[in-house]
Structures are given as structure tokens and as C-alpha cells.
Amino acid sequence: MTSSPLLERLSARLGPKGFTADPVAIAPWAEDWRGRWKGAAAALLSPASTEEVADVVRLCAEARVPLVPQGGNTSMAAGATPDASGDAMILSLRRMNRIRALDADTDSAVCEAGVILADLHTATAEVGRRFPLTLGAKGSATIGGLASTNAGGTQVLRFGTMRTLIQGIEAVLPDGSVWNGLTALKKDNRGYDLKHLLVGGEGTLGVITAANLRLVPAVGARSVAWIGLDTPDAALDLLRMLEAAMGDAVESFELVPRVALDLVLAHVPGTRAPLAEPHAWNVLIEAVSPMAAPSPEKALYEALHSALGTGLAADAVIAANERQAENFWRLRDSISEAEKQAGPAAKHDISVEVAAMPRFMREGSAAVESAFPGTRVIAFGHLGDGNVHFNVGAPLGAGPEWQESEGTRVTSYAHDLVVAAGGSISAEHGIGQMRLAELARLTDPARLAAQRAIKAALDPHGIMNPGKLVPPAPAPGAGS
Ligand code: FAD
Ligand code: MLT
Ligand code: ZN
Questions:
Q1: Which residues belong to any copy of the FAD-binding PCMH-type domain (predicted)?
Q2: Cβ atoms of residues 225 and 250 within 8 Å
Q3: CB-count burial class (<10 Å; 0-12, 13-18, 19+) for 365
Q4: How many Å apart are CA 197 and CA 211, to the nearest integer?
């Protein structure tokens, strides 16, 4: 149980804007985005500065009270959700939402952890630059959460994940000490890279309070197209052909199966299909030029014309204006929301080598649907990164209990296929609590042991986001 003297100290340090123990105020932040994991917390702590974060962590470390760092609470792995005991406190970074510096000359932005991604996009556009990472949750996801999950999204093809865009980090470590590693050093070989441990660390090794981010030139012109085609193999061939024709102008290449598009059209008001006829598979392409002219449209048009001529693509439309381009993106970005409304599904975030993905999708889908009659694979997403969300919809009429019963078996089955294909069971969403047991089951013991050793060294009392990312060590004598 959390001691009340601690609550009093925290309340005194953070003031009314930064502290609440009111269960009603805490409740929305104690469950995950999908509403599947419901936890409880003794308090919601919302510090407004790095110094306040440091004091909170130090006080909680002394009292051995666990902290669950939280940004926008959009985790797809229930990483920011406390357990149901109510012992932990949620440490929200949302009040730390200042952009401390924005420098177009050095192409860098220093953002506090609570800066919302869409706000950073707006601010960088105002100085003729952009932060080249985006995803469907951009209106809520924060820089701290994106960094802590090493988030991906729909521009990884061209710019990489968060890890490649982070130049420096400021963090509070589990004993309350502050590490200032914000300077954007291009070269730094002083040994283990703490920055890269914290990125993707899911709040288990410390609290990221600010990040120095790399910017790139703003979009001068963009061309967005929606393509209908027959198979993921054809889609990957199309990507290779576009890359040969247009180089790295192709920034996004997102695969959308007909089932996913149908779900969006059925559940998201105001959406309509871009092509007259339905196709088994669709691809959303965005090509970008940093200059207003020449626009990438001509090159994209010619490449698609050729793909239609050879039969690689079955149909295609290039957005005629920004509104239509945004409508295409809305279809893509609404898939998760539509799936949420459609009913239970076993959600997977998997990667294999890029060239192996079409075969994995073909054979993996057939295997899952035959092993679990009535289920339906809905695999969509970042084909060019070798990462799809290989989700498996429950049979018609299944209730929410399906998730915990047969859904768990479906997940193990699908993950076994991924491991057999040499892939990863978490490409971009992280482990959180959702994939913890699967990580323990399927990870090389040497890697797990190293992960536990790092955690124990930096967080000896286990106060930082317990129950996430790092599976507990097996009981003595239980084997690895
Ligand atoms: P939270 O959900 O609050 O936290 C995520 C994790 O980071 C937790 O473990 C938390 O403890 C930790 N954390 C948060 N802030 C800090 C901090 N300051 N210091 C230390 N630890 C911290 N993800 C992708 O990678 N690609 C996608 O395409 C994508 N699309 C999405 C679409 C939708 C509609 C939704 C709802 C989610 C999507 N996500 C995607 C998942 C999610 O948006 C990302 O994981 C995002 O990085 C989470 O940011 P957040 O601020 O909401 O973090
Ligand atoms: C996406 O690419 O849309 C996501 O990462 C979200 C999801 O997996 O549902
Ligand atoms: Zn994704």
C-alpha cells in the first residue's frame, strides 16, 4: 500500500495542478487505448518541470513505490497502464509540453516529453522544416512516449524509426538523478549508449523528460496515390519499381487489404472508397519533393502508368488536391479505430525480412485461418519496412471473452510462425504488458538475461514501470 505521508509530500511538491488522488480523475488514464487492460493507481502525478520529475522519482524510490510513466496513453501494448493493485502511481508527462528550442539552421528541435506529435508538426512547418515521423495517434501521442517505444509509423521507409531521429535525451534515472544528454553530438564513443537504452526502454529504465530531435526540410510538394492490386507480392514489386524510378521520393507505402478498407467504410462516417471497383489489396503511396517544383506527381504518374501497363497494378488514382490526399490518409489511419469497433481480434505487430513478407502473409494467413476456423486475418501496414499488423478477427458472433481464451492461442500460433520465419513479435509497438509472456516464451535466454541484468543495474528496486518489457526471472530450478 502507498503510504499517505508520501502522498502528502508529493501533493505539496506538485501543487493542485500536478497532483490528484481522485479515482474519478485517474480512471481514464488507468486503462489502455483499446479498453482491454484496466488498472488502478494511488495517484496521478503531473509534474511541470524536470526538477519536479526528479523530486517525484526520488521520493517514490525512497518509499519503493512504483511509477508508470505516461504520455498520450495511446500505447498499443498497454505499456502505460498500471496493474490493478492500485499500488503504483501514474507519472504523466503531459504538462511538460514546451518546445524549448526550434532551430532551422541546425535542423533540430528540443522538445519536452509531453509535446504532442501533431503540435510539433505544426511548429516545425512554421519555420519551413518538419519532423518526419507520423502515425494515426499523432493528435495524442507525445515525444516521450514515441521515444520510449521507439515508435515507427508511416514514414519509416524514408526516415527510420524514432531511434534514428533522436539526437539527444534528457532523463531522470530511477534514483532521481538527472542525466543531461541533450547535446546533438554526431560522434560520441564514451561507451554504452544510455540514450539508446532509454529509447525503446518503455519507461523501465527512467523517465525521458526532453529530446533533441532531427528535422528535415518541409514538404515542398507531395503526391498521394491509391492503388488497387492483386497480391502483397505485386505490392512489393511495385515498391521496388517506384524506388528505381523515383529514388527516395517515395516516403510512404502502406498496404491495405480489402477487409480493412471495408471495415473503415462500414465504421468510420464520411469515408468512401477511392476506386470504383474493390480490389483484394490496396496501397497508399506518398511521394514528396522538398521543392514546390518540380512536383513528384509527373514521375509518380509515369511509374503508375507503366505498372498498369504491365499488369502489376490493377487500378490507380492520384489525389487531385490536398483534400483528397487527406481523405486517402484518413482511410489508412482509421483502420485501428474501425477494428476496435468491429469486435474482438488478436492483435499482432510483426516483422520479417522485407522480401519474405508477402510469402509470410500468404502462408501465415492460410495456416491461421485453417487452424482456427471462422477467424479472418486482417494484415495491413508498413510492407516496405517488413512490418504488418497481422491481426486475426474473431469468428462472427464471438464475445469479448474470445480474446482471453481462443485469442491467446491464436497469438501463440501466429507468433510461432513469425519466430520460425526469423522475425520479431514486436516490430514497432513494444512489449508493454500485452506481449510480456510471449517475449519470455520466445526470446533467446541470453538476450533475456542481458535485458534483466540491465534493468537490475539501473533500477535495483524495480520501481520504473514494473510488469512491462522485462519478464520476471524464472524461479530457481525452473530452468530458463
Ligand atoms: P504512452 O502510451 O503514454 O506510453 C507508451 C510507453 O512509453 C509506456 O511504456 C510508457 O510507460 C512509456 N512512456 C511514455 N512517456 C514516457 C516518458 N516520458 N519517459 C519514459 N517512458 C515513457 N505506433 C507505432 O509505432 N506506429 C504506428 O503506426 C502507430 N499507429 C497508431 C495508431 C493509433 C490509432 C494508435 C492509438 C496508436 C498507434 N501507435 C503506433 C502506438 C502509439 O501511438 C505509440 O506507441 C506512441 O509512441 C505512444 O505514445 P504515447 O505518448 O501515447 O505513450
Ligand atoms: C498502424 O500502423 O495503424 C498501427 O501501428 C496501429 C495498429 O496496429 O492498430
Ligand atoms: Zn503500424
A1: 37-218
A2: no
A3: buried
A4: 14
What is the DSSP secondary-structure string of 45-87?
Answer: E--SSHHHHHHHHHHHHHHT--EEEESSS--SS-TT---TTS-
CB of 342 sitting under 6 A from ligand 2: no
3-state secondary structure of 336: helix
- Cell digits of residue 370: 485453417
Quick check: CB of 79 below 6 Å from ligand 1? yes
Residue 404 CB neighbour total at 10 angstroms: 10
Residues 6+ apart with CB under 8 A from 15: none
Q: How far is the CA of 379 from the centre of ligand 1 (A)?
A: 21
Distance separating alpha carbons of residues 379 and 140, to the nearest angstrom: 24
How many angstroms separate the Cα of 103 from the Cα of each of 113, 116, 171?
A: 18, 18, 22
Closest ligand 1 atom to residue 136 Cα is: 32
User: How many CB atoms sit inside 10 A of residue 108's CB?
Assistant: 18
Write down the ipTM of this complex. 0.99
- What spacing in Å lies between the alpha carbon of 332 and ligand 2's midpoint? 9
Q: In this predicted model, what pLDDT tens digit does every residue of 45-69 receive, in sequence order?
A: 999 999 999 999 999 999 999 999 9
pLDDT in tens, 375-429: 999 999 999 999 999 999 999 999 989 999 999 999 999 999 999 999 999 999 9
- Whole-model pTM: value is 0.97
| Domains of the chain (ranges, CATH numbers) | 4-92 (3.30.43.10), 99-217 (3.30.465.10), 221-336 (3.30.70.2190), 343-435 (3.30.70.2740)
Ligand nearest to the CA of 80: 1
Instruction: Give the span between the Cα atoms of 405 and 394, in whole angstroms.
Output: 11
